[in-house]
Amino acid sequence: QVSLVESGGGSVQAGGSLRLSCAASGYTGGSVRMAWFRQVPGNEREEVAAMNNGGVTRYSDSVKGRFTISKDNMKNILYLQMNNLKPEDTAMYSCAAVCSAYDGNWCLGFRYWGQGTQVTVSS
C-alpha cells in the first residue's frame, strides 16, 4: 500500500514562496510517476506539475516559470517549490502517485493520493 503525506503549506503574502513536500512510502519512489494537484472548493481539481519516471516535467500554464517540481529518490520525497505566489494560487494542494491510466508518457489518472496541505496567499 502506497502512503503519501504532504506538508509545507501555510499562509503567505503575494510574491512570497513556499515549498511543499510529499513523503511517500510503500514503493520505490524513483520509478513512479508523480504529480501535484490543487483544488479550490467548487472547482475541478487541477494538475499543476507532474514528473514522469524519466524525470521529465510538465507544468500548467498558470504556474509555469514560478513552480518547480522535483524529487529526492533516496528519501522518496516529492517537492513543489512555489515562488512569486499569487492570491489565485490559494488552494488545497495534494500529491498523487502511480498511474491508474497511462497515455504512454503521462498518467491520465492516479491510484494514490495524499490528504493535502492548504496554501493561502493574501494580497
Count of helices? Answer: 0
Shape: globular
Number of strands: 11
Helix content: under 10%
Largest sheet: 7 strands, mixed
Distance between the termini: 40 Å
Based on secondary structure, the structural category is mainly beta
Mean pLDDT equals 93
Strand content: over 45%
Topology:
Layout: E1 3-7, E2 10-13, E3 18-25, E4 34-39, E5 46-51, E6 57-59, E7 67-72, E8 77-82, E9 91-102, E10 107-113, E11 117-122
Parallel strand pairs: 2-11
Antiparallel strand pairs: 1-3, 3-8, 4-5, 4-9, 5-6, 7-8, 9-10, 9-11
Write up this protein.
The protein is mainly β and about 120 residues long. The chain has strands spanning about 5, 10-15, 20-25, 35-40, 45-50, 55-60, 65-70, 75-80, 90-100, 105-115, 115-120. The strands form two sheets. Strands 2, 4, 5, 6, 9, 10 and 11 form a seven-stranded mixed sheet that branches. A four-stranded antiparallel sheet has the order 1-3-8-7, with no helix packed on it. It starts with a strand and ends with a strand.
Task: Give the tags.
single chain; 123 residues; mainly beta; seven-stranded mixed sheet; 11 strands; 0% helix; 56% strand
